[in-house]
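#lab-general

N.A. 3:47 PM
ok so I finally got the sequence cleaned up, no stray characters, all 316 residues accounted for. can someone with queue access submit it? mine expired

B.Y. 3:52 PM
send it over

N.A. 3:53 PM
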Amino acid sequence: MYPANPLITVAICTHNRATLLEIAVRSVLPQLSDDAELLIINNGSTDHTAVLAAQFAAANSHVKVVHELQTGLSIARNSALRQAAGNWVVFLDDDAIAEPGWLAAYKVFVLHLPNALIACAGGPVTPYHDGPATAWQGASAFRLTGADENQPFSPKGSPVGCNYAVQREVALAAGAFNTALGRSGNFLGAHEEIELTERLRRAGFEIWWVPGARIRHLVTLQRLRLGSQLRQAFDGGRSRGIRHLNKSMGLDCAILIASRALIAPFHCGINLLAALVIFPLQKGRLAMRALVRTTSIAGMTYQLLLQIFRRKVNRE
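B.Y. 4:20 PM
back already:
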């Protein structure tokens, strides 16, 4: 029987990754109970995702499928918020695996909230790979660890989107996920969960760490290659630019754009020089980080300058 008033909705948003989706869903199914549902958001997939999702729903009354035809991760996440029946929505990426006890840790947490101001939470993320990585392709940036007990995140800390829990009504009241952020088509955008977390904090809510809610997240070797890393860094920089622009208004926005545009060439030059000088160290990992920083800065500057161009066009 489908849960009438579930405490938690586990939401998996997916686009054309049926094979990975099956692994993610099967990691969640044994953890479901009458106070939890699994919501699969099929975000315009053209592979056999629809058939697979329908099979899961037919076999398990706790599983529901929503078809969101407009592609974009933030759009799919917002669809999940609207369609979820749970008081809390826990987002799990379609290329992630929920560890045993993951959902139970969230249940215990939301049933015994330390205070009424908690609106968002997240847990540890451990990367795994589809093959052996080379020495310079360290993936520590994809790992999220923390304390061994529930506690608030640091003022600038945030859960990551692959393991992200939020109070449904609070998230919707805050405006949900910004659809200018997050992956969409060829745009490898990011930070949609960070931007929502920032808005929740500014509204007075707290963000907490739940160490028992552990997942493993696939980081493919393709994603670790230099070209992919730089592409992600550029679009990630664009996402940072969007976030900064959303927080700035009027004169502050103009100052932000001007200062970043002026500083960017020097900042990029320093990082490129550093990459060249330190290339032999740590098997190239430090140089890789410098190149990624350079590309991220370039992406953010591009987005800020694009904003100037759009404003000029709109005035004309």
